[in-house]
Amino acid sequence: MIGKMENFYSYFIPQAVNEMHGEYALKIRARSTSGFVNRRLANFQVRYDRQVNNVYMGDDHMLDDKTPPTVQKIEVPAYQFATDRISKIHVEAVDAESDVMEMAYGVGDKPTISDPSKITWHGIGARTDFNILGLSLKHNHSYYVYVKAKNSVGMWSRPYVSPPVKIDTTAPGRVQVTRTNRYPTWQSEPFNYQDAITNYNSGNTVQYEGRNGAYSFIIPSQSAVQNANLQHKTMFPVVGNFLGALVLSPDDTIPPGIRVEFTPASDPESGIEQYVFKVTRSATDMNPGSGWRLLGVDNDGRPLTTLKLIGQPLAYMDSFYVHIRAMNRAGVLGPKVTVGPIRPADPTAPTKPEITYGANPDNESYYVTSLNTIVLGLNPAKDNETGIAGYEYRIGTNPGLGDLRDWTSDGVRVYRSALILGQQNFPSDLFRTTVLQGGFSMSPGWMTGTPRIELSNLSLTNGSTIYVTIRAINGDGVRGPAVSSKDIRVDVTPPNSPMATLSFDQQQGQIRVYIGNAGDRESGMYGFKLQIRKGDNTQVTQSVEEVFPVHEFYRNSATIVLPGTYNGRDNVTIKIVGVNRANLRSPVVTLRHVSLISLVSGSVSGASVNTGGVVNMGNVPPPGGLNPGNYNAPPPSPPPINPTGGH
Q: Are 142 and 109 in contact (CB under 8 A)?
């Protein structure tokens, strides 16, 4: 900066240290208060040929500019839609001696200039970027921009001719949608993010001034997958912009995606530059002038004709409309084509549920005690995308079959319960007026309970062995893999009422009870329970349970010895109940006010009174098991006892 000077004619430039012979250029630029700039470039030569008092002396002289400037390049879009202008012209021109001071342009329809004097030239000063207005151009015609440059000594360059500019005022044709489906197609196509738009709202916004108004385009970004950790895990390893093809598993969480394929539109004048698209929830586009996205080009620069959109704004269990338009190389948008509604499909099936049996032993069948209802424990299936909408089941005579009832969801209820399934136990107090069935204890998670699945409105056959197969259905209607139950035995009848014979060993003080005639054809016996009271005592004196091993389910008798705490003067009341493996109890047998001394003398005082009945567990099926073919197994012979009294 030299400073603010008027009437400036000369300026002293000191000699630089170690300055040598050479040619130099001096550029001077003057700026007015309004911002206009005038500049000059002068070349001169300096020679140092003698030294006086250790100072090099020499001479200099100006070098004349005898060569015109050169226009090196004209850049202009090859296709334009306006007939009154040519836009976005960029010129590069140089003059090494005296700089480029001014440029002028002309417009014609010839690629060569035979006589520059016949061109109408328009000066534009030293600007290198400009638009040409006020033209009268024709559709489907090509035009050329001519530019020449002038240096500071007034020499003009030869005119330079631009590449052709073709005017295209017509819109391209319509696309034709040929297929819509989900993306990715499960198990038939890898997830490839290189050619998919992974986040609708990411990327670089590009403002475009189109023929029919302003449009806002978003160039898709391929690095938006870091937001894809949707639920319990992520399947998107972040390895930069290139993710490659990812193989999905049913345990992965997958964002919604759609694919729309269409045939190319036609534009005979300028051809197709790209396609733009928009996704809405309604068939009517309420904002037609904004929100359009560029679809992009392939590796060879060809416009893509397949839209693969993953993530926003898509959502599962909702429908969307896709609007597509072609844009020609002149920037004219074609008519809109709308396809829809398109519902992003869940590409994965639910996981396999798991059937649980509560306290039911692994080596036993599971028992139900209702002809109309089956209740099983359930570890529910999972579906990370659309959730579990419900379950369906089938019933057969072998695992996986549906020969008794094929797939149905009728009568299915999934709930939680605090009651423990699969228990085999005895009533706690046989002296109660109403003896309840066992199996009503609470599970540790009684506040929330454990999941159950109930199948109702059945018509089961007592004594039959069945298998239940269950599968889940997700919110998109996709069915998951099925799981089959263990063998399930239907038993709705209690064991036979037991018959008891007593004997008393006065020397040992022991009561010996033989229980017989208490078998169960459907599920077999779990065991017997005996409780005894002395005299009019309201407290149970002794309680004994005889539980049969599972491999002795066919037993229908037992001998219970009460240890030596009794004498012949005692009167006792004894209650006996049998429980089968389905946890159904027999009627309670009561031997009331039996005199033990009478047993010694061979007589029994007190009658056998049946005071009980079967009390079931409602719709909560207890387990148990009797394998087919074992129903007619002979019971063991009763033990050798010598009772002296009846029952």
A: yes
